[in-house]
Amino acid sequence: MVKKATDLLSRVRRHIPDGIRPAFTTPEEWHQWQLEQGRQRSQALARENQAMKMQRTFKRSGIRELHINCSFDNYLVECEGQALALARARKYADEFEGNIASFVFSGKPGTGKNHLAAAICNALLLHGKSVLIITVADIMSAMKGTFSEGAETTEERLIEDLSRVDLLVIDEIGVQTESRYEKVIINQIVDRRSSSKRPTGMLTNLNINEMNQLLGERVMDRMRLGNSLWVIFNWDSHRSRVTGKEY
Ligand SMILES: Nc1ncnc2c1ncn2[C@@H]1O[C@H](COP(=O)(O)OP(=O)(O)OP(=O)(O)O)[C@@H](O)[C@H]1O
């Protein structure tokens, strides 16, 4: 078997142009290469299954329609704050691999918090990561749905699913009326994600003190793990200029 593989490899090698380095040169390297390919394929499949499950549960994929084409390149910079927010978001995406740092984008409506969060997620998707941007309201209605008769999933499984996405961005923190259940669920998600070294993004109109008050010190402390990113979006809303046809 090894001899056959060696013969085949030496025949193949004769046809490889000079200067091209093959992925494997010995039967052992070939075997390792095949194992690695298999591992990558099964990871891709698991990711795809998870994305489909998310789509079924939340009735949509990781990024909402309006933000599906948001990128770093189509974020307009007209003030220093925007330039800094853009640079920091871009750096966050570049340094995502193996990083446990979470981020909080806080500030006025329409300033591009979702835009830059979607740009981060779109960049990560290109690198095969799983992402989900979801509002607190959507999380809560999915959670409440698990209590109804014949529900496909359980509260525990839903929390587990939300904890496994490579980057989960929770939007509209502080929009809902404050409820104890909501606080407990966010606490559990952030806790589980941080203990499995997965970062969480948060988008909010609240300031840091209000976030501390709403979510509690436990959650906010976990959000500060590692080299976490906090950006304040304090310029004017861009919404009146959106036509829906720009990208
Ligand atoms: N600097 C910008 N360049 C280009 N488009 C922008 C910029 N800022 C915001 N937008 C666009 O304006 C719209 C509103 O922005 P976005 O949804 O990111 O706001 P937000 O800060 O998340 O607001 P809210 O707090 O109300 O959820 C989006 O369509 C977004 O793509």
- Determine the CATH superfamily of the largest domain: P-loop containing nucleotide triphosphate hydrolases
Poorly predicted segments: none
Count of helical regions: 9
Task: Measure the end-to-end span.
Answer: 55 Å
Order of helices and strands: HHHEHEHHEHEHHE
Give a list of the ligands.
Answer: adenosine-5'-triphosphate
- Morphology: globular
CATH class designation of the largest domain: Alpha Beta
Mean pLDDT: 86
| Percent in helix | 40-55%
Which strands sit side by side, in order, in the main sheet?
Answer: 2-3-4-1-5
Task: Walk me through what this model shows.
- Strands 2-3-4-1-5 form a 5-stranded parallel beta sheet, sandwiched between helices.
- The relative contact order is 0.15.
- The radius of gyration is 22 Å and the shape is globular.
- With 247 residues, it is an alpha/beta fold.
- It has 2 domains: 2-42, no CATH class; 60-241, 3-Layer(aba) Sandwich (Rossmann fold), CATH 3.40.50.
- The mean pLDDT is 86.
- The protein contains 9 helices and 5 strands, in the order αααβαβααβαβααβ.
- α6 (155-164) crosses α7 and α8 (208-215) packs across α9 (217-223).
- The chain starts with a helix and ends in a 14-residue tail after the last strand.
- α7 links the parallel β3 and β4.
- The protein has helices spanning 2-14, 27-58, 80-94, 113-126, 136-145, 155-164, 180-195, 208-215, 217-223, and strands at 103-107, 131-135, 167-173, 200-204, 229-233.
- Residues 66, 70, 75-76, 82, 109-115, 203, 205, 233, 238-239, 242 line the site of adenosine-5'-triphosphate.
